[in-house]
Design goal:
74% of the residues lie in helices and 2% in strands. By secondary structure, the chain is an all-alpha fold.
């Protein structure tokens, strides 16, 4: 029989997976609402009973699951006017300038004025585009996963020093 800590970890991952399927695959819950907050509060309360190792595993799995579900939701939704993305993938507005300059760099040209002031992201995006053969989806997924892992690591460190409530805020 699994330990209570393992049951808590499995239950919290299952709750996140259920929410992810409802959001990304079935489109049964809206993306901008407070349902995720309620799910997250329940998960954090469950994870207070888990061992530190189980909590670390669970938070990483949950964060990556939610990140993937949001990407699937956006990419299958199509146009998202609030973020100015066409077809779920093609950026418009400021992000278009960074993408355009990353493509310029991939093809051996210079940055425009926008990216020459802040070149780090455009250069990193150019590296991701070059290594993936120009796949913007791969580059954006890599950025999203990296950001999700960074947030999880920050939340876990805050949990160690300030507790679950402060980690929830992170």
């Amino acid at each position: 029989m699994p330990s209570p800590s393992r049951i808590v970890v499995i239950a919290s991952i299952a709750a996140a997976l259920l929410y992810g399927v409802l959001l990304g695959v079935l489109k049964a819950v809206p993306r901008y609402d407070c349902i995720l907050v309620a799910v997250a509060v329940g998960i954090f309360r469950l994870l207070e009973r888990a061992t530190p190792r189980g909590r670390t595993f669970a938070l990483h799995a949950i964060t990556l699951t939610l990140c993937a579900s949001y990407l699937v939701h956006l990419w299958t939704l199509g146009y998202e006017g609030r973020n100015a993305v066409f077809g779920g993938i093609l950026p418009w507005s400021d992000s278009h300038d960074f993408y355009d300059d990353a493509l310029r760099l991939v093809h051996g040209e210079r940055f425009t004025e926008i990216s020459s002031k802040r070149p780090f992201f455009s250069a990193a995006l150019a590296v991701l585009l070059k290594t993936s053969g120009g796949s913007l989806r791969f580059a954006l997924a890599t950025c999203a996963v990296s950001g999700a892992l960074a947030c999880t690591l920050a939340a876990l460190e805050v949990w160690k020093t300030h507790g679950a409530r402060a980690a929830f805020v992170v």
